[in-house]
Structure formats: structure tokens, C-alpha cells
UniProtKB/TrEMBL annotation:
Protein name: Bacterial SCP orthologue domain-containing protein
Signal peptide: none
Residue ranges annotated for the Bacterial SCP orthologue domain, each copy included: 10-102
Taxonomy, superkingdom: Bacteria
Pfam families, per the entry: SCP_3
Length: 105
């Protein structure tokens, strides 16, 4: 996290932090109704609701790793992330604002 904050994070650091925050999201909102994609580092299914099994899920959120980290840590609001044009969300239950930030508190 320190290297990310310092602006010296390498690809491996981004991958580790992205996956750790995705795991926190799943722990906070288990389920299979929404797929959160953070290419190229990971994708998870979360939030209670209908389980997705084949093809493109009905609810998908996708954004770059740097934006995911900022949103997950509460440094960028969900609304600001949506307005940035870098976050794509389609389908029901794709507003994660009530679950964020994903801090330990």
C-alpha cells in the first residue's frame, strides 16, 4: 500500500492490492448477482441475488485497477467514478456506494 501511495507501485503491487480489495468486497457482500471485473487482475461475483452461470452476467461492473483501488479505499466516491467515464456498470445492483469504502473499520 505504501508504494501505491508513494506512486512507486509496480504491476505486482497493483495486482496484489486489487485482489485484496476484491476479496474484501466479497466478504462484505457475498453472493453471485453482480460480477466486478478489474482487468487484467481479477473478477469476482458478489451481492445476493440470482446466480450467474453462463455467458455475460446480467449485472457487470468494470473499471481499471487504479480507479478500483481509489474507490475501494474511499478516496474517490462511487458517483465521481461513474462520472469519470472509466467505470462501466450495467444491470441491477451495480451501485456499490453503500458497500464502500472497504476499510477495516
Amino acid at each position: 500500500m505504501q508504494r501505491y501511495d508513494d506512486g512507486t507501485a509496480e504491476r505486482a503491487d497493483l495486482k496484489l492490492l486489487t485482489k485484496a480489495l476484491l476479496n474484501r468486497l466479497v466478504a462484505k457482500a457475498p453472493g453471485h448477482a453482480v460480477e466486478v471485473r478489474i482487468p487484467p487482475y481479477g473478477a469476482v461475483q458478489c451481492i445476493e441475488g440470482p446466480r450467474h452461470t453462463r455467458g455475460t452476467p446480467g449485472a457487470v461492473i468494470e473499471m481499471p485497477p487504479e480507479l478500483w483501488i481509489e474507490v475501494a479505499l474511499g478516496r474517490t466516491s462511487w458517483a465521481d467514478a461513474r462520472m469519470s467515464g472509466k467505470l462501466r456498470a450495467s444491470g441491477e445492483r451495480t451501485d456499490l456506494s453503500a458497500l464502500l469504502p472497504l476499510t477495516n473499520s
